[in-house]
Design brief:
heterodimer, A: mainly beta, Rossmann fold, Neuraminidase, 2 domains, 6-stranded mixed β-sheet, 4-stranded antiparallel β-sheet, 31 strands, 44% strand, B: mainly alpha, Fusion Protein Consisting Of Minor Coat Protein, Glycine Rich Linker, Tola, And A His Tag, Chain: A, Domain 2, 3-stranded antiparallel β-sheet, 7 helices
């Protein structure tokens, strides 16, 4: 009987928890101060500059100008918290870069939380002089992660295509560059167009469409070795490759019977499975983060709109996701499957827009005239896209926190950016 | 002619109704007398609580003569007590009154406890709100719940997201806010029992739409 009573009382005790509700928060960015790094290496300034720019580009930080620093503490112990409180600084970053034996570099950095009056991180990264920027990106990702709690994306890569015209002939170059646009390297050069670059989930391979054979064909290229492979050798035009999250499948658009339809290719046994069947165009497929759904652009309603098809149920009809305006295309999922990013046309402007699945309206993120090919960063916070007009093209970015940036200008018409996954 | 009288009657009633509505709206029926009992009610209650708790320290026997005084004031505490009051008889009155006194002192204790809980809850909320940076471009009406476990020094020893909002940036910002707080320095002012009962496990709900 007593046991019975205890059992009855138990749920009451379990749920007798204090519930506090937080309704207010700040929308301001974190305010941080970067103390000029110490050290014997003469590349200290470059490292700090790159890392500083990385943080500003995220839109989630306000970095105090160097002239505004009231003091330059050499160690965490020398920090006087009240002095920094006056400047409203939340975090202080201190560091040191040293030349190692065998020509390596060793960077140590510490993050001090002014409110908590304590050090919250202390890390060391190693690098080689030729890869200063990479070392800096590692530092900024470390700082970003320990302050915001999300993985940083400074050390990731971006693919893009550059079209350079000389008199009558054009050259198409597929580049790989750091997430800040620097350190670009050529992956492929061709006199025929290259379009739709896409990363494999492990970011070791890429797939793209090349017209080098006179037809649109999809190739897979190993980034490390440069080895290339034609994925399908039939007579059809093939475009828009997209990798499944497990890396085993590739979704493609095939013009098999003169009409664009989406197929799934098994990369191991080269089996093709047809996914869509409609007399209108179905193209630009992309996979949901868990690999159970495919998003694509279809003209079946008379105008381009985004549809989603469930792969877990056999022969399902695609469901329409966008209803705003008469043009929504080139969609991709946010990494946590909360919504989709796509190109939306509102009165002759093509802008990048976001739609959360639990909302029935879209959120435009950009304001220029011709924005296209959005690609989402692996942490879901930043979107890069191409701004194009007749003569030039460049790559710009927008963060969900509202900051915008443009990657360093290069000659020619830059377009079709594609963001890699996390690289380490 | 008959119809006209009907119209006249109808329009007369209509006039009365509309006039009444109009007068009501401009506050003709409103008087401060109506307000007075409502305003004075809480004042009465607090006096009673004081009176009884003061008497609690005295001998029970001395209470008997005062019964008549207590009786009418008790009636106004709340409806629960009203039903108790008529039951007071010469024999049962003391035990009955003792029960009432116990109830009252318990009530006093709980209100003191509630005060303590409220006071420290507000401190906790303020600290977390100061540390929370709300992400932009997120959906409206997002809510996430985080369960924290603290040790008696106020250090947060365990953080669990028990109810996700569905938006990773929102959940993450909430988790980060709790992590940034790390320690509630005022926990040494909380009595051990209150800490064990209330502040050891806390659920924090982030709900910016409120």
């Amino acid at each position: 009987m007593r046991l019975f009573l205890i059992l009855l009382l138990l749920p009451n005790l379990l749920f007798a928890e204090l519930l506090l509700e937080i309704t207010k928060g700040s929308e301001n960015p974190f305010r941080i101060a970067i103390i000029p790094f110490q050290g014997t290496s003469n590349s200290v300034n470059t490292i700090v500059e790159v890392f500083n720019n990385d943080l500003i580009r995220t839109g989630e930080f306000y970095v105090l100008e160097e002239e505004m620093l009231l003091s330059i503490p050499k160690t965490v112990e020398e920090i006087n918290p009240s002095e920094w409180k006056l400047l409203n600084i939340d975090f202080i970053v201190l560091g040191e870069v040293l030349n190692e034996e065998n020509s390596g570099l060793k960077a140590t950095y510490e993050i001090y939380d002014v409110n908590k009056k304590a050090k919250i991180r202390s890390s060391t990264v190693y690098g080689i002089p030729g890869k200063l920027r990479q070392l800096s990106h590692y530092i900024s990702d470390g700082v970003y992660e320990s302050i915001t709690g999300m993985k940083g994306i400074s050390a990731t890569k971006i693919l893009y295509v550059n079209e350079i015209r000389n008199n009558s002939d054009s050259n198409y170059i597929l580049y790989i560059a750091d997430a800040d646009g620097a350190n670009e390297q050529v992956l492929l050069k061709s006199t025929e167009p290259i379009i739709s670059p896409a990363w494999s989930p492990d970011s070791k391979k890429i797939a793209y469409v090349s017209f080098e054979t006179g037809m649109a064909k999809v190739f897979i290229q190993d980034i490390g070795t440069g080895e290339r492979e034609l994925v399908l050798t039939n007579d059809n035009q093939i475009s828009s490759p997209a990798w499944s999250p497990d890396g085993k499948l590739l979704s493609l658009t095939l013009y098999q019977d003169g009409n664009a339809e989406i197929y799934i290719l098994n990369l191991k046994n080269k089996n093709l499975t047809r996914l869509t069947k409609h007399y209108s165009i179905d193209t630009e497929s992309s996979w949901s983060p868990n690999g159970t759904k495919i998003l694509f652009t279809s003209g079946r309603s008379g105008a381009p709109q985004l549809y989603e098809i469930d792969l877990t149920i056999l022969n399902t009809k695609p469901s329409r996701l966008t209803f705003e305006g008469n043009y929504n295309a080139k969609g991709s999922y946010l990494p946590n499957n909360e919504g989709i990013i796509f190109v939306h046309r509102s009165s002759n402007q093509f802008q990048i827009a976001l739609k959360y699945f639990n909302e029935n309206f879209i959120r435009p993120l950009t304001e220029s005239k011709m924005d296209e090919s959005p690609s989402v960063s692996p942490n879901g916070n930043v979107i890069v896209y191409a701004i194009t007009d007749d003569r030039s093209g460049m790559i710009a970015g927008v963060t969900l926190s509202g900051a915008t940036f443009v990657l360093p200008a290069t000659n020619g018409k830059v377009r079709e950016p594609a963001w890699s996954g996390f690289l380490r | 002619m008959q119809t006209r009288v009907n119209y006249l009657q109808a329009s007369f009633f209509s006039f009365l109704i509309h006039a009444a509505l109009f007068l009501y709206l401009i506050g003709f029926f409103y008087s401060d007398k109506q307000l007075r009992p409502i305003l004075s009610k809480p004042v009465n209650v607090s006096i009673i609580v004081e009176e009884i708790s003061a008497k609690k320290t005295k001998e029970l026997k001395t209470l008997k003569p005062n019964l008549e005084k207590v009786k009418p004031t008790l009636a106004s505490i709340n409806s629960n007590n009203i039903s108790d009051v008529p039951k007071i008889s010469s024999q049962g009155s003391i035990t009955n009154l003792q029960d009432l006194i116990n109830q009252e002192s318990e009530f006093l204790d709980t209100s003191l406890l509630e005060n303590e809980i409220n006071q420290f809850s507000i401190l906790i909320i303020n600290l977390i709100e100061a540390a929370w940076i709300k992400p932009k471009n997120i959906q409206d009406n997002l809510i996430c719940d985080i369960k924290i476990k603290t040790n008696s020094q106020g250090r947060i020893v365990d953080i669990n997201l028990i109810n996700s909002s569905g938006n990773i940036r929102f959940d993450n910002s909430a988790l980060q806010a709790v992590k940034r707080v790390e320690t509630f320095s005022f926990f040494n002012k909380i009595t051990k029992k209150t800490y064990e009962d209330v502040f050891k496990n806390i659920v924090i709900s982030f709900n910016p739409s409120r």
